[in-house]
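As a warm-up, study this chain.
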Amino acid sequence: MRAEKAWEAYETVKKQLQELLFPRRCPFCHEIVPVEGETICPDCRRYVRKYYLIREPVCKRCGKALIRSETEYCMDCAGHRRSFDGGISLFRYGRRYLKPVMGKKPGYEKHYMGESVLRFKYHNCREYADFYIEELMREYGKRLRRLRPDVIIPVPVHPARRRMRGYNQAEILAEKLGETLGTEVCTDLLIRIKKTRPQKELNDAQRLRNLTEAFTVAGKVPGEYRTVLLIDDIYTTGSTMEACSRKLKEAGVHRIFCISICSGQVPDGEAAGK
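Now compare it with the structure written out below.
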């Protein structure tokens, strides 16, 4: 008992020192978070939830935002076979068209969630994952628990890209989600064997060809891995999730549910205030 209390005290002091020396940055405006213990500026949280959080109507397959409530599937899911069984996308990627925000620095309204995820992905802003998973659980925690996933699998990156970047952002998301749900995380079953061109440079048909042989399943899928949560940072056309899901289904996984932090920008007519 005494050792446990000493360890708790150590962890508390360590956390306080980390916050003092390396204060948490807001995942939206990137300024220092003004409230201790928060993962985002309170004003930014309200702003993000109002303008970037994806709400109904959404695609019944991947979870991307839809324009019309009478539509069931996005264009990508309506036009392509899907191996995954469902999906959640948390935030809209693209910039919303808004007027300057009173009381904020000039240009505040130009921040957007896609910018946040790119900092998380390429600029070592790993602490942003705390906010992403916090909001994910706030919106979809009950739904995720009802799924009773057996394992969480992050979309892998090629070893060369991981060495260059220093981490796989999807793994960070998976670990945070796994801690929250109490679910196992597996990072060595699904692997990337081909270094492909960046997906953002390709059209839909090229994306599918680009990823056909990019992933493989290493070894045999454990029998208890029947329901899988597959997680990644950005979802665009769904080609990456589809390629990963096909490999996992071929290897014996029964059900796959995809989670992404951001999904592609909606048409201009759907932008806030229009």
